[in-house]
Amino acid sequence: MEKGKKKLFVISGIFMTVLLVMAVFAAASGSVSANEEQIKQVVSEKKDDSLSADISSYVGDFVEKRGISPESINNISEVTFEDLPKEVNIENVDDTNLAIYRIDYDKTEQEQDKIFVITYSVEKLRSQGDLIISHDKREFLNFGFNGEMTKEGFLRTASGIESNPEKGYVMMRAGSITGISTNLEVLEGNGNLEIVIYKNGEKINFGNSFAVELGGIEKDYDVQSKDTVTFEAGDVISVYARASEGIKWKDVITLLEITTN
Fold first, then answer.
1. Are 152 and 246 in contact (CB under 8 A)?
2. Which pLDDT does position 232 carry in this prediction?
């Protein structure tokens, strides 16, 4: 094997999920196993002060499984995403919940080597307060109307109940309204048709709109960033359809996207 050849590993632990394997590791010949306590002690001594005890334990488990002698370890440090080594070529990821750790060790008495470990960061996942789902959680509220509508009114929930300022989906967590899509059929008339969102009986300036000139199938969708339109636990969300006089439409299907923390 070429001297100093770099190897890259992606591994998983108790709070970590396998991401990808960049190369296959060949265990160092002549390496000796050591007891768990000895490895953890060496790892604790060789790691940067900024790394937590959990990271020490995790790296220690990795070192033991790979058959690297603890005495050969020189340093364990975290790699910053702003200064990635040329051996680590990763696109479309950032440090939101990933971490890269570098292990320097003596492969032989004359040869040094490095291992880069890419994994989910225990520390960053913990800071989000949710070790199971690290990303924002998206849910969808279904509203609609089966049949013709000739005047404005509230749409029905997925259970078939017509919503109103006090009836609708009750939010269980704080979050944001981040998207809405609508599909409907216009039967006759021209003018404007709107799908309006209400929170606790008050109109929200976010929804779908149609400029109706001819009959036919209409569709629209809109998205927006988190924290633009927010709600609290206990708020009631309902949806209203209104149109210019003379417009007839039917079979409204509206999907509302909410994002919770």
1. no
2. 96
